[in-house]
């Protein structure tokens, strides 16, 4: 009987080790995806040609809420929606809602354009 108990304990320990390894790979995968998202955002930003601001963008005054400003600053750093949510302790859906309002207020079509406009206006 002692041999069976030891075998069971060894199998449980092996399963626990495998679970820990899988959790580690999940974390590495998350970090790799975040790095890819940041590089993609930087690539998109680099591809945006310099152009003079439109007449309605000459004023740097954009009325963003404090939370919208925080989201925009993290966006400008290349953070994914998931990372922004984790950093600000809000859901990804809430991040998307803030981004939607930021796009409207800046007159941007997407996250890259929002960052470019914000940088040109001195908002971030």
TrEMBL record:
Biological process, per Gene Ontology: regulation of DNA-templated transcription
Domain named HTH luxR-type: residues: 57-122
Keyword match DNA-binding: yes
Keyword entries, A-Z: DNA-binding, Transcription, Transcription regulation
GO MF annotation list: DNA binding
Gene3D superfamilies attached to this UniProt entry: Winged helix-like DNA-binding domain superfamily/Winged helix DNA-binding domain
UniProt xrefs under InterPro entries: Sig_transdc_resp-reg_C-effctor, Tscrpt_reg_LuxR_C, WH-like_DNA-bd_sf
Record has NAD as a keyword: no
CDD domains (UniProt xref): LuxR_C_like (cd06170)
PROSITE patterns hit by this protein: HTH_LUXR_2
Protein name: HTH luxR-type domain-containing protein
Species: Streptomyces caatingaensis
